Amino acid sequence: MRSQVLSLKESEFVEAAKTLGLNTFHIVFREMLPNISSYVVTNFPYQILEAMAGSVGLIMLGLMAIDINNWGFMINEYILCSALTIPEVSWRLLTLFSPIMATLLLTLGLVLLFDGLETVFNPRLQEE
Questions:
Q1: SS3 of 126, please?
Q2: Which of 19, 30, 91, 118 sits between 20 and 30 A of 47, alpha carbons compared?
Q3: CB within 8 A of 120, min separation 6: which ones?
Q4: pLDDT tens by residue, 80-128
Q5: CB-based contact 49:110 (threshold 8 Å)
Q6: What ranges do the domains of the chain cover?
Q7: Is the whole model's pTM more than 0.85, yes or no?
Q8: How far apart are CA 80 and CA 70, in angstroms?
Q9: What are phi and psi of 63, to 5 degrees?
Q10: Helices 93-121 and 71-80, packing angle to 10 deg
């Protein structure tokens, strides 16, 4: 996205807007932003997905402040109670799969949603 903004900065319509004496706010939000909106719409959700996966992973490993309302906390608690090695609690193995499956299904759903958004906003992917 940064390279796209830098290339738009040197384009003719931005130079024309500067020549007309338009302020920076107008140039950025009225001239440049409509041209990069497809990049913002398609790249921003992937950054959210990476942050979510990173948060779950760090909490699962115990490297981040524990928030009880997190799937990583549920996985961490399961690992800490040593349910994999104690036969009496092996039935709890099913409870381990619920946060893992929830994370995977949410990730899959968001990837499919973002793929659809990219198809809508990327003119090269649209059918003629």
A1: coil
A2: 30
A3: 126
A4: 776 666 666 666 666 778 888 888 898 899 888 888 877 777 767 666 5
A5: yes
A6: 2-121
A7: no
A8: 16
A9: -95, 0
A10: 150
